[in-house]
């Protein structure tokens, strides 16, 4: 049954400042309630909070030695974890393994053992879901913005276009013959022709072999433009 303190600062100019001293002071105050022995301290100085605890030099050492009934003390959640979802997953894992977690900004009681845990995990769960939704929204908006600018968002080029470039700089360039074929598809569809009939006619008129599925996709894309 060991007590460990974890502290972190994100920039080297904070190393000799008050940040580490303040974190250590608060953590040691809480540590006295759990052990009369001097706690082992792990400090990641100049390490970004965007890096997972297990991927930080000292954080990795801490994670490797943790055993059931050990106690980890930190001054704030953001000193240990990179995000709410990271905090939620790691805290639940530690709780299942019998490892106590004390965050002094929430008091000197283990957040993994008492009623505070339910509140903490509930807040973290909601925040984690909010974070995930923000990420999904940013991805959707990014893809839509790139598509609006003619950028290629991945996969093979759709009928009517060719892919130019590679990676993030890739974009779609219209293919004149295929664009003319799409215009013919739209006209035939407006006249009530079936997808298979349109595909057959496109092959005759433009010497382009397309399936009825490709016709449907081209018409769907044309309607969205």
TrEMBL record:
CDD domains: SR_ResInv (cd03768). Residues 2-150 form the Resolvase/invertase-type recombinase catalytic domain. One of its GO terms (molecular function) is DNA strand exchange activity. Keywords: DNA recombination, DNA-binding. It comes from the Bacteria. PANTHER family: DNA-INVERTASE FROM LAMBDOID PROPHAGE, SERINE RECOMBINASE PINE-RELATED. This is Recombinase family protein.
């Amino acid at each position: 049954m060991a007590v460990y303190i974890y502290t972190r600062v994100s920039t080297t100019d904070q190393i000799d400042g008050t940040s580490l001293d303040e974190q250590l002071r608060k953590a040691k105050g809480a540590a006295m309630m759990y052990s009369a022995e001097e706690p082992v301290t792990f400090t990641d100085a100049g390490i970004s909070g965007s890096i997972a605890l297990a991927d930080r030099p000292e954080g990795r050492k801490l994670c490797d030695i943790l055993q059931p009934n050990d106690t980890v003390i930190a001054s704030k959640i953001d000193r240990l974890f990179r995000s709410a979802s990271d905090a939620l997953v790691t805290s639940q894992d530690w709780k299942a393994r019998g490892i106590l977690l004390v965050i002094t900004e929430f008091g000197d009681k283990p957040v993994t053992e008492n009623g505070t845990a339910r509140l903490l995990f509930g807040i973290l769960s909601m925040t984690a879901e909010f974070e995930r939704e923000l990420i999904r929204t940013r991805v959707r908006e990014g893809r839509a913005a790139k598509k609006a600018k003619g950028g290629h968002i991945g996969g093979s080029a759709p009928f009517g276009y060719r892919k130019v470039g590679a990676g993030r700089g890739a974009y779609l360039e219209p293919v004149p013959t295929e664009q003319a074929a799409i215009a013919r598809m739209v006209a035939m569809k407006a006249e009530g022709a079936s997808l298979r009939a349109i595909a057959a006619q496109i092959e005759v008129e433009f010497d382009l072999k397309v399936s009825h599925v490709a016709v449907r996709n081209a018409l769907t894309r044309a309607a969205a433009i």
